[in-house]
């Protein structure tokens, strides 16, 4: 084997060890709904207060159909499974933005029983590359999955405002 062939093998081995592929997040089985022993009007008021006081901008508010929607709010990384971002040849891949969209659905089951369901869709922007000409920075959106913290907080906030 020639010196050039050996050097090429060593270089390929070293470079292969310098990149760590990202680990994809995993969807978890979480509690997304709760039934409250309260009227639809009481629960609706509690939903609006809970979301409004959180500082999240409500994009859709339709009492007759029981829908509260929030589009593209930022989320805390503690609320999601984002997997592991990995690295590219000496540069850690970085999460540069996090976004969540929510649909909160309320429906009366009986005059004094109301069900609320919180559906969330999370994603994060991942920057890969190391800034070189060979591996320039690139960004793409990756789906994340809620770990239930956000939903538990919303459902608990509704509960506190009812009682």
Describe this protein's structure:
It contains 3 helices and 9 strands, in the order αβαββββββββα. It is 26% helix and 38% strand. The longest helix has 14 residues, at 3-16. The strands form 2 sheets. Strands 1, 2, 3, 4, 7, 8 and 9 form a 7-stranded antiparallel sheet that branches. 21% of the residues are buried. It has a single domain (3-162), classed as Alpha-D-Glucose-1,6-Bisphosphate, Chain A, domain 4. The protein is an alpha+beta fold. It is elongated and about 85 Å long.
Key words describing this protein structure:
single chain; 163 residues; Alpha-D-Glucose-1,6-Bisphosphate, Chain A, domain 4
The proportion of residues forming helix, as a percent range, comes to 25-40%
What is the count of distinct domains? 1
Order of helices and strands: HEHEEEEEEEEH
What CATH first level would be assigned?
Alpha Beta
CATH architecture: 2-Layer Sandwich
Stretches where pLDDT falls below 50 for ≥5 residues?
A: 10-16
Rounded Rg = 23 Å
CATH topology: Alpha-D-Glucose-1,6-Bisphosphate, Chain A, domain 4
Instruction: Give a count of the beta strands, DSSP E runs of length 2 or more.
Output: 9
